[in-house]
Amino acid sequence: MNIENNSVIPDLDFNSPAARRSRKFRAFKDKTASVGIGLGGVSVIIAILLIFFYLLYEVIPMFRGAEVEPWKHNEQVVEPYAVPGSGQTLYMAMEEQAEIGLRVTDLGELNFFSTLTGELMKTVQAPLPAGTSITSFALASENSHSFALGLSNGQALVFKHEYKSTYPGGERVILPTITYPLGEAPIDVASVALNLLAFNGSEGNFALIGGTQQNMQAVFISQTENLFTGDIELEQTTTALPDLGIKIRKMLMMPDLAWLLVAGESGKMEVINLRDRDAPVITQVLDASSSKITTFDLLLGGNAILIGNEKGQISQWFLVRNDKGEWLMTKIREFETGNSPVIDLAIEHRRKGFVTIDAAGDLRIFNSTANVNVLTQKVAQANASMITLAPRANAALIEEAGKLTLLHIDNEHPEVSWSALWGKVWYEGHEKPKYVWQSSAANNDFEPKYSLMPLAFGTLKAAFYAMLLATPLAICGAIYTAYFMVPSLRRKVKPFIELMEALPTVILGFLAGLWLAPFMEENLPGIFVTLLMLPAAILGFAFCWAQMPKKIRWLVPDGWDALLLIPVIILATWGSIAISPSLELVLFDGNMRHWLTNDLGIAYDQRNAMVIGIAMGFAVIPTIFSITEDAIFAVPKHLSYGSLALGATPWQTLTRVVMPTASPGIFSAVMIGMGRAVGETMIVLMATGNTPIMDVNIFEGMRTLAANIAVEMPEAEVASTHYRILFLAAFVLFMFTFMVNTLAEVIRQRLRNKYGSL
């Protein structure tokens, strides 16, 4: 063949300067791309590690132990000082800032003093009637600041200490005052000396119970305001208590004024029902302690009792309703303590915690909900007699041998323990131990419930139902699209399904909560019929289509016959929904939800797991489909052709050659889809009802870890226990996805090694 002169290929000079520059530039680009890709990968790893360490940084402070040390003022340790005032101490308290203390004595002195120096700031003398003395003391609760003094003439005085802050000249000045909730005049309680006294009440309803062992009277007081004069008038009802039959050491009354608790010196406890004020009834007599009771106090909220004894044991009790509807005082838990007798016990004002001081001088800090001994530390000798806490629980005053010692307490997160986060806890007012998440309430004496189990369960439940729907549909669709569908149709179907992933999840959640959930509730029988009708309709149409004459089947291009299923699916779904009202009327008397609840005992919530399965499954399908389809389509064609050439059917080739080869990619798709389902926020936030319950019932809702963080993080106080537990929830979610992905990668590599040689 002749080559024209103008077609002669010129010689290439690979050593020319231009060629060398081109090679250097290409090498530079390759090096830059390699470095850029490497930096990108390292940056992703660093970003993940930063997230990990930041979550850990917010979580670790919860698990630091408490610390107690002498109080310091201007970098100087506050030394112990003499007890201010005279007489024996009946009660001590501190105000919010722990700058002013109150000491009530048996001489009727109410002494306000500086907690730093012991200097008396103000003394209020109780208005005792002439010739009387103080014979008893009763505290309503620490956070109410109300207490009563029982007198030798059978009368009682009720006091309340309050504090007002002013800022003259820009400096804070705290002014302590004493008020009289029931007036300054003594209240008649009994005709004998009040050697024993119990007091409680608030908001216009109070009760005083006092007297001697043989003569006990109860006085119920109701405050009303005169509409004409504006004066406060007191209405009193007096009732005699039955013979209690035990030698009484101390009495306590619950805030609802319905129960009186009596501690006997022998370790017995009696429970008296005061609901019928004309006829109080002893409902229980219990052996509450194995030795002499030394402390007997109400926990914050007044619903639980704490009992300490000479053996150093401390137990918590509260009323529990049994199967018969009876309220019984029940021992809930014991706390780990020492062997020395418990001398005194102080209750925290805002948390379910308390501190004790024993005969050996050991200070112990406890949290009742978490059932933990946060700290044990020796702070006194063997003659400490009283301890009190500041309202913020950051300071404690200890009376020892006529001196007061001010201590600083650092105890930020006593509510946190393994059992409180992951175990069943017996909360006040509940019939048995439960997993409960309830982080806030309207009242100040609320018991926070921080169990992460309902949230973890809800997360897995939502992911399970979503994957139950999405996995078979996505994988089967990917198999057909990649292996059986003609290329021209595949080029249209695959982008359309992948486009579904671009739908905002907030829109899906909005539609699921406001449209899908009510629709499913109204057409519940039709939904279940649809689940049965669709497979039957598809199989029936496939069978009928196969029986059609070839001239009819050949009218549809090869590979496009799957489109014929679209009207079949639409008609089957429409027919199932259309017969739903009639089916519900015939089978369920017109209300399937009522039938489920009353006849089967299955609770039904409109926003339930079935709604989540459909809505979140719809969101997860594109992820699993796309990766699975790519994995199957990427299987080398010579493997399929070789299998078919050896006589295998297309189905045998798919199941024995294509699927095993693509199994690493399919497994990765499922794991990525599961990670998407576990971490989904907006859909579960808007379509589940956000009820943190543990119930496998498909008709009940749930709350997930991600949704809980989204709901409660904006309202959580920064650095609070609630705030840090939400970060712990995020850390748990992070670690769960990390472990799942790690496990998935290990399995994927093993599958690749096993089937990579095909």
UniProtKB/TrEMBL annotation:
Give the InterPro entries listed for this entry.
Answer: MetI-like, MetI-like_sf, WD40_repeat_dom_sf
Keyword terms, alphabetized: Membrane, Transmembrane, Transmembrane helix, Transport
List the protein's name: ABC transporter permease subunit
Domain named ABC transmembrane type-1: residues:
456-744
The family classification in the record reads: Belongs to the binding-protein-dependent transport system permease family.
**Transmembrane spans:** 33-57, 462-484, 496-520, 526-548, 560-588, 608-627, 666-687, 723-744
Q: What are the top taxonomic ranks of the organism?
A: Bacteria, Pseudomonadati, Pseudomonadota, Gammaproteobacteria, Oceanospirillales
Task: State the species of origin.
Answer: Amphritea atlantica
State the compartments where it is located: Cell membrane
Membrane topology listed for this record: Multi-pass membrane protein
First-listed, main subcellular location of the protein, grouped into a coarse class: membrane
